[in-house]
Amino acid sequence: TEVTEKLEEVVMIWTKQIRQVLVESEQIRREADDVGPSAELEHWKSRMSSFNSLLDEIKSSRVKKIISILQAARSKTLQQWKELDGSITIAANEAKDNVRYLYTLDKFFGPLINASPVMMEHIPSLMNIVCMIYCTSPYYNTSEHMTSLFLKITNQMINTCKTYLCEG
Questions:
Q1: Cα(67)–Cα(17) distance, rounded to whole angstroms?
Q2: Which helix (DSSP H) or strand (DSSP E) does residue 69 occupy?
Q3: How would DSSP label each residue in 82-138?
Q4: Number of domains comprising the chain
Q5: 10: domain range?
Q6: Cβ(120)–Cβ(106) under 8 Å?
Q7: Name one GO cellular component term (predicted).
Q8: What 3-state DSSP class applies to 146?
Q9: pLDDT tens-place string over residues 25-61
């Protein structure tokens, strides 16, 4: 029982740390007002990396051994652990899925930055892919995510026009 108590303390510390990571990942992002759409992709790539690292740690043999010992001891801390494990898996899947969908827009980021204000040739294809993301993504098709993406696309178009006017 002494060993079980020590292992439960360790799992409670991990639980607290993981909860902190989850809470921080859900907080509103602070970004510059003129940030472009590539920042959206970078945000989700970073989030994917963080959650994948966390998943790798959770699936390590050391953690699995501790969890199996606590299962054998019928520890009550495991319920919280299982819930957090599920939350981390969902967050990792969301980030991975969002990166996959946003990469389909990546080919437009360069032309959007380097185009002259007559960037109309890129807009229909770009909007078709944004529509496809909205219609098919199980995670990214929220009003919050789409608004953020449209805001960043619009910011990039405005920045491109400003650059054109200042250089022309």
A1: 16
A2: helix 61-72
A3: HHHHHHHHHHHHHHHHHHHHHHHHHHHHHHHHHS-S--TTTHHHHHHHHHHHHHH-T
A4: 1
A5: 1-167
A6: no
A7: axonemal dynein complex
A8: helix
A9: 887 778 888 888 888 999 999 999 999 999 999 999 9
